[in-house]
Write a structure and sequence with these properties.
alpha/beta; about 260 residues; binds nicotinamide-adenine-dinucleotide
């Protein structure tokens, strides 16, 4: 089925676009007509995603960028490069960059805790702030920022103290930004996936995955495309009265 063209000519920045959910988000936004800036720490992976995106019209161009979202200098360079390349601030931003370093609380190292908070929470803050500043400075009214949280940020999960803390933080960050940025017409929402089939969940041992699947009423993992569909809706004008919302994409999972 052909995707609707809800994002024609919009410029979208997607972090973590090199793989998993981020790559599916890039594909979905491009199919909706957006120009996509694909950003990832893995530059080769970002370039691979960008090469595969549809270019339906002559003006619909895509570009890959390297970035470490945990580093303020790298993020501000990214925004400068994106604006120079496309002569516009990104009207849509989807923050998908994220990592796990799982370990039980009793064994969790300070380094693993700090690393996950730096990428997932501080990284989301830095990109969100840089995009909002660029939009406000450009004078363009409007914008949609979508952050990837996780259902585990609401309910906790064994072996993920660092990750759960980061994702609970992303939800609070998003709701606060929604309140502050509404006056500029910028909407901010958070998507809370359950268990989605990506390289991140490929790391989960099969025995653990079996137990997790038993908790999903729909009885299966989600596909990255099913998260991307929700991001495209939140990016589009069809969600124009939705801001500060947490949207669960879990197949009914409630841990
Ligand atoms: P993934 O590991 O498949 O992809 C994450 C991408 O982020 C990779 O391309 C990686 O190179 C990039 N990345 C990592 N650190 C980075 C950094 N410092 N700077 C820039 N890019 C960086 O993961 P995924 O499963 O696609 O997850 C995407 C988002 O969705 C993450 O925020 C994750 O926490 C969240 N999420 C995933 C699931 C799931 O089941 N897969 C569930 C809930 C939430």
């Amino acid at each position: 089925m052909a995707a609707p063209q809800r994002l024609r000519a919009a410029l979208a920045l997607v972090t973590g676009g090199g793989g998993g959910i981020g790559a599916s988000v890039c594909a979905r936004l491009a199919r909706e007509g957006a120009r996509v800036a694909v950003a990832d720490r893995d530059e080769a992976a970002a370039a691979h995603t960008a090469r595969g995106l549809p270019r339906a019209e002559p003006g619909q161009e895509h570009e890959a960028f390297g970035v470490d979202v945990a580093c303020a200098r790298s993020v501000s360079q990214l925004l400068a490069q994106v604006q120079a390349r496309f002569s516009a601030a990104p009207h849509v931003c989807v923050n998908c960059a994220g990592i796990t370093r799982d370990e039980f609380l009793l064994k969790q190292t300070e380094a693993a805790f700090d690393e996950v908070i730096a990428v997932n929470l501080k990284g989301t803050f830095l990109v969100m702030q840089a995009v909002a500043q660029a939009l406000v400075q450009s004078g363009a009214l409007g914008g949609s920022i979508i952050n990837l949280g996780s259902i585990v940020g609401k309910v906790g999960n064994l072996g993920q103290v660092n990750y759960v803390a980061s994702k609970a933080g992303v939800e609070g960050l998003t709701k606060t930004a929604a309140k502050e940025l509404a006056r500029y017409g910028i909407r901010c929402n958070v998507v809370l996936p359950g268990f989605i089939r990506t390289p991140m969940t490929d790391q989960v041992p099969p025995k653990v995955m079996e137990k997790l699947l038993a908790l999903v009423p729909m009885g299966r993992l989600g596909d990255p495309e099913e998260v991307a569909d929700v991001c495209a809706f939140l990016a589009s004008e069809e969600s124009r009265y939705i801001t500060g919302a947490s949207v669960e994409v879990t197949g009914g999972l409630f841990l």
